[in-house]
């Protein structure tokens, strides 16, 4: 390769670098991105969220650009550009419609959240025409926690109390955390394994309850990272009723079983004796 051709290639490379400065971010831009990890944001279906970038004092922002990458896959797309006090949303008829706005010069807001709004939102903050910083926000949108329902099953009963299994049921498709509370006001269960036994998935609570116990109210608490709901059940209504009592009556009174058997046997013997007398 002659010197003339080398000189032409160097000039072309230099021209490309000068005319496209944003393709080669400065060291300051790179270090800023590394020093600002992705911000975790949680929202509830139908609510709103804010994405406030972390911008150092004294920095004047010329404009901001936003893009979005859905959590459930699919191609990302450009949300818009904010400059001169105005958000230019390129496609107001897309899935965000009129739900996007800016609450100040740098903070993006999404209203009327939908489940498919979950994903990564990237902010490109332009400080000069050739210098920008990038920050990311990871949004997770949760459904409101539905009201749980408690079923019960009486395992055994005595005059002083009963053993009951409570089951907490929750409609909905998302994973929920389930825990149990006692009393009113609510508080965490005690550590007595002889009085309380919780299943591995947390949905079932077995209680050894005495009618003289101070706490008869048990509550199932269902929650996700942004919402919670409760349902309560009073064991006094069960343990002091006749429910389950007919099953336990025989186990409490073995003498009663023996007495019934003796009566039946004696009744049979009397019948045989009467038959013999008639024959004679």
UniProtKB/TrEMBL annotation:
One Pfam family cited in the UniProt record for this chain: V-set
Keywords: Glycoprotein, Membrane, Signal
Cellular localisation: Membrane
Family annotation (PROSITE patterns): IG_LIKE
Leader sequence segment: 1-19
Domain Ig-like residue range list: 148-232
Main location (coarse class): membrane
Name of protein: SLAM family member 8-like
PANTHER family (alphabetical): IG-LIKE DOMAIN-CONTAINING PROTEIN-RELATED, SIGNALING LYMPHOCYTIC ACTIVATION MOLECULE
Record GO cellular component, one term: membrane
């Amino acid at each position: 390769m002659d010197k003339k051709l080398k000189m032409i290639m160097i000039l072309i490379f230099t021209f490309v670098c000068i005319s496209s400065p944003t393709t080669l971010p400065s060291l300051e831009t790179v270090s800023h991105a590394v020093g600002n990890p992705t911000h975790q944001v949680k929202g509830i279906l139908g609510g709103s969220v804010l994405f406030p970038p972390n911008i150092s004092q004294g920095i004047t922002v010329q404009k901001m650009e936003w893009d979005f990458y859905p959590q459930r896959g699919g191609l990302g797309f450009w949300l818009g550009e904010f400059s001169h006090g105005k958000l230019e949303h390129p496609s107001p008829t897309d899935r965000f419609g009129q739900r996007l706005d800016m609450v100040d010069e740098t903070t993006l807001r999404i209203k009327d959240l939908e489940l498919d709004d979950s994903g990564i939102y990237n902010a490109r903050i332009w400080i000069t025409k050739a210098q920008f910083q990038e920050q990311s926000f990871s949004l997770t949108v949760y459904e409101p926690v539905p009201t749980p329902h408690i079923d019960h099953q009486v395992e055994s009963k005595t005059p002083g109390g009963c053993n009951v299994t409570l089951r907490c049921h929750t409609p909905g498709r998302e994973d929920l955390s389930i825990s149990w509370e006692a009393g009113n006001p609510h508080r965490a269960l005690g550590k007595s394994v002889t009085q309380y036994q919780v299943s591995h998935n947390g949905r079932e609570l077995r209680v050894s309850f005495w009618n003289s116990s101070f706490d008869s109210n048990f509550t199932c608490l269902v929650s996700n990272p942004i919402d919670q709901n409760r349902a309560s059940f009073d064991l006094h209504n069960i343990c002091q009723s006749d429910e389950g009592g007919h099953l336990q009556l025989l186990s409490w009174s073995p003498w009663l079983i023996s007495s019934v058997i003796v009566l039946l046997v004696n009744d049979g013997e009397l019948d045989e004796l009467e038959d013999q007398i008639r024959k004679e």
